[in-house]
Amino acid sequence: MTAPENIQRAPQPARLSRRTLLGATAGGVLLGGVAAAALPTAAQAAPAPRCYTRTEWSARPPKSATQVIAKPDHIVIHHTASPNVTDYSLSAAYAVQHWIQNLHMDTNGWIDIGNQLTISRGGFLMEGRSKSLTSINNGQNVLGAQTADNNSHTIGIEHEGIYVTENVTTALFDTSVLTCAWLCNTYGLDPHVAIVGHRDYNTTQCPGDVFYARLPELRDRVAAVL
């Protein structure tokens, strides 16, 4: 997942003061007596954001075993079509995650929550379907139920709220950028190709006209992080 750090030798200056030397070595490495700043690796550029696990939000166990599959080639952006609440707390994030799981398991009849990840309006990232977080960290995916006829090659992120006419919160969008950058880095994906809306695959309003119109911005910001 992380490429070896590639550090180039800095050119030797004619004179190097003690202050310059000490300042340079504080933030880099010393090569042949000359300080060179360490270049960031891909993992440093797109670190894994804080993700609250199923244990932390007290998920129900799945009805049957979760299937681990190969890495995805697309990241599907969804909205939950639930109310745009103004409670941005972690407890509110847990509550919407329980609502999603109950809806997917009890109403839709699925084995578990359908999506792999969820982002609340307060910007909290949470693990969705069982084994999602472990699979991502291993460069794999789990078979979800979030994009009909395309679950075998996609990973889905639910974003709390409905964005047909209203805009997403700044916290939600910022976390989406970090999450997508993490996934693109993990799976080796080009954000300008990989990040799509649910409506790109299925006939649906999801992720809402306003959020869908911001997907180019999302792709650009993810690319900037990478």
TrEMBL record:
Molecular-function GO terms, alphabetical: N-acetylmuramoyl-L-alanine amidase activity; zinc ion binding
Keywords: Signal
Alphabetical GO biological process terms: peptidoglycan catabolic process
Pfam annotation, one family: Amidase_2
Signal peptide positions on this chain: 1-45
Domain Peptidoglycan recognition protein family intervals: 49-202
Superkingdom, natural source: Bacteria
SMART domains: PGRP
Coiled-coil stretches: none
Family per similarity comment: Belongs to the N-acetylmuramoyl-L-alanine amidase 2 family.
Identification of the protein by name: N-acetylmuramoyl-L-alanine amidase
Origin species: Kribbella kalugense
